[in-house]
Design goal:
Pfam families: CAP. With 239 residues, the chain is α+β, with helices and mostly antiparallel strands. It is built from four helices and eleven strands; from the N terminus they run βββββββαβαβααββ. The radius of gyration is 16 Å and the shape is globular. The two termini are 25 Å apart.
Length: 239
């Protein structure tokens, strides 16, 4: 596990980036993803970007102080779109209108490790949530007859760095993407099954998951538990 500080407002956003080698697609406006009222979670999608830009890798210093540093707050606003717009036109892929529902592996985020610390932690290959994301992504692909994606350590390191950049206050968009494609999410999303369900039900993110040209993937997730609630940043990178 890795930890660093930064407080996060309760917000749930999704960001999807389509592959650079696909065909042109019409941009979608930001929209809320409908979820069950019982979860009391909201989700927000943003348009995809084609370019690869240098990663934001700011690393906040550990501390027990629950007060957020001025430069370490992510951009919350539950109803606002991310501040930075995609730099190029989105791309289009042929995707089924209604994705086939699959059985998701749960993969709980280990919030007990973060309880009472007021610090951010990150998952790695020792956590069930890490592998559950891969299982769920591959189950979604299998439902449309695609081959599974192999887990790649380098892509996971890139995904982890993307989550860290969000925690450090970087813009929640694809301007810092360093891989061929990525999908992101933020908010109180406590399991791999929840985040993968959001991505599956978002057309732009689903298009990335079922891209037949991808062969490998990486997973990153940073999480924090405070008196106000639980928070997460998720990223899956593709190549």
């Amino acid at each position: 596990m890795k930890k660093s500080i930064a407080m996060l407002g309760m917000v749930l956003m999704l960001a999807g980036c389509a592959a650079a080698e696909s065909e042109p697609l019409a941009a979608e406006p930001a929209a809320l993803v409908e979820i069950s009222p019982a979860t009391e979670e909201t989700a927000q999608t943003v348009e995809a970007a084609e370019t690869t830009n240098p990663a934001q890798t700011a690393t906040p210093a550990p501390t027990q102080d629950p007060i957020p540093m001025p430069t370490a707050e992510p951009t919350p606003a539950p109803t606002a779109a991310p501040t930075a717009a995609p730099t190029q036109a989105p791309v289009e892929e042929s995707v089924a209108d209604t994705p086939a529902q699959v059985n998701m592996s749960y993969g709980a985020v280990p919030f007990d490790l973060a309880a009472g610390t007021e610090q951010w932690w990150s998952i790695d290959s020792s956590d069930s949530a890490y592998w559950a994301v891969q299982e769920n992504i591959n189950a979604i692909r299998a439902a449309v007859g695609l081959s599974p994606l192999a887990m790649d350590g380098g892509l996971s390191a890139a995904a982890d760095a993307r989550c860290e950049s969000f925690v450090a206050g970087g813009a929640f968009d694809h301007s810092g993407m360093t891989t061929r494609s990525e999908i992101c999410a933020a908010g109180p999303i406590g399991s791999a099954s929840s985040v993968c369900s959001y991505w599956q039900n978002s057309p732009a993110h689903y298009a990335n998951i079922v891209n037949s040209s991808f062969t490998s993937m990486g997973v990153g997730c940073w999480f924090c538990q405070t008196a106000e609630g639980q928070y997460t940043y998720w990223t899956v990178t593709f190549n």
